[in-house]
Amino acid sequence: MEVKITKSPEETQALGEEIGRKLSCGDIIAITGELGAGKTCLVQGIGWGIGVDPKVYMTSPSFTIIKEYSGRVPVYHIDLFRLESIEETYELPIEDYFFGRCVTIIEWADKIESLLPPEHIRIDIEIVSENERRIKIYSHLSPHPSRGRIKERGTNYRAQT
Ligand SMILES: Nc1ncnc2c1ncn2[C@@H]1O[C@H](COP(=O)(O)OP(=O)(O)O)[C@@H](O)[C@H]1O
Ligand SMILES: [Mg+2]
């Protein structure tokens, strides 16, 4: 796990850009953090790092849930803020995106944790103060602790049947 502190929205965008430059088709970025944490701000930078036009500021797709952008590879931005239950995703082609030829970036990813393939990159954003954010980046090499818990639950369940 890597921890970064940013002290302005621009610094968060710059961090996103750095992350975005390293991404390629099939990558899934799962972002968590409360409202106003800076998820969309980070997403803008990630998009620029993937090659989205710098004049384009990706915004939360409130009513569509999924928005597509073009960079050096296609970018899908999913915002699950309004998702009330995991069942609602059954009507969405979300899993198609995971296996598609694109980078998928998900805000409020904790709402669909159990649907995420294990290889995703998880980013948790915490508000430290008005302009300061603590950004934790987990990859498949240093996984988020919840991943182990899900696996454990699965094992226990099988043991009981
Ligand atoms: N270090 C920082 N990183 C990101 N956003 C910041 C930072 N400091 C202040 N902010 C402010 O926090 C808000 C983040 O908004 P947004 O990215 O839309 O959050 P979210 O998508 O998590 O709800 C913006 O108003 C931004 O100006
Ligand atoms: Mg947002």
Structural overview:
By secondary structure, the chain is of the alpha/beta class. It has a single domain (2-152), classed as 3-Layer(aba) Sandwich (Rossmann fold). The chain is built from four helices and seven strands, in the order βαβαββαβββα. Strands 1-7-6-2-5-4-3 form a seven-stranded mixed β-sheet, covered by helices on one side. It binds adenosine-5'-diphosphate and magnesium ion.
Radius of gyration, in angstroms, nearest whole number: 16 Å
Q: Structural class, from secondary structure content?
A: alpha/beta
How many DSSP E strands?
Answer: 7
Question: What is the H-and-E element order?
Answer: EHEHEEHEEEH
Number of domains: 1
Point out poorly predicted stretches.
151-161
Based on the coordinates given, report the CATH architecture.
Answer: 3-Layer(aba) Sandwich
**Span between termini:** 35 Å
Bound molecules: adenosine-5'-diphosphate, magnesium ion
DSSP strand content: 25-35%
pLDDT averaged residue by residue: 86
Major sheet = 7 strands, mixed
In helices, the fraction of residues equals 25-40%
Quaternary structure type: single chain
CATH third-level topology: Rossmann fold
Shape: globular
CATH homologous group name? P-loop containing nucleotide triphosphate hydrolases
CATH C-level category: Alpha Beta
Helix count, DSSP H or I runs of 4 or more residues: 4
Report strand order across the widest sheet. Answer: 1-7-6-2-5-4-3
